[in-house]
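Ligand-bound model needed. adenosine-5'-diphosphate.
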Amino acid sequence: MSQALPLNTHSSPHLRIQDLNVWYETNHALRGIYAEIPTFGITAIIGPSGCGKTTLLRSLNRLLEEGEGIRVKGQVWLNEVDIYDRVMDLNELRTRVGLLAPKPYPLPLSIYENVAYGRRIHGLDVLDKGNGRNLDRKVEHYLRTAGLWEEVKDRLKAPASALSTGQQQRLCLARALAVEPEILLCDEPTSALDPISAQGIEEQLITLKENTTIVIVTHLLRQASRMADYVIFLWMGELVECGPAKELFKNPKDSRTQAYLMGKIG
Ligand SMILES: Nc1ncnc2c1ncn2[C@@H]1O[C@H](COP(=O)(O)OP(=O)(O)O)[C@@H](O)[C@H]1O
Ligand SMILES: [Mg+2]
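Prediction:
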């Protein structure tokens, strides 16, 4: 039997990571991570390539497949339920904790259906009361939220593959938002984009942080300083330092954080 997640009561912190360890075969990629991710706002996970950023992000909605040489030990508490509890309903978890990947992977469907899809498979279209016009309104709303509506409103039935990479990434953002996640995980979400599209995604995420908890992985320090309210600095699989972005960027306490921020490592 699966356990339903209690609703977020907006008490902070939203996610609490407790003694989290991940191994890829014998590579101990995350080592005893403790962290709290505040409700709402943007938390940035930063650090040099290979330090474990993606691993940490994907552990937050159990996207690391266990069994293929990957082992996860520890707890991730989401509103007082450990998502690694055997009874966790993965379908519900991934609705509540969405993911925006580094590269856009739209479904081989129309623009409209890419956004409607999640609502259908998660049964949210029942809330749309099987009324096509309500689903239409939802699709429009999320395309607007992702900053794509004006560019696609006259060709909603066109295949998603006809869009540019930058548009596809905004479509994937609309698709992720359409299931109304509480937490949105973003792994280097602008890395495949031109500067203008990248700026667009940054701006959308900054708008969204008012009522969504956003966790972003980035190796771009400027992006982290533009966007983050809270920062987690990883170094060789360990959490070296975390705290409010302003403090961490201005007065890093650990010598490794200082060296990283000065561009001496990574
Ligand atoms: N699927 C995988 N199989 C084996 N090793 C992996 C896998 N994914 C990541 N790793 C290893 O885990 C460590 C952390 O990787 P990752 O989380 O991708 O770092 P980052 O996102 O900071 O670049 C690295 O040593 C990497 O080689
Ligand atoms: Mg990565």
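The chain has one domain: 15-261.
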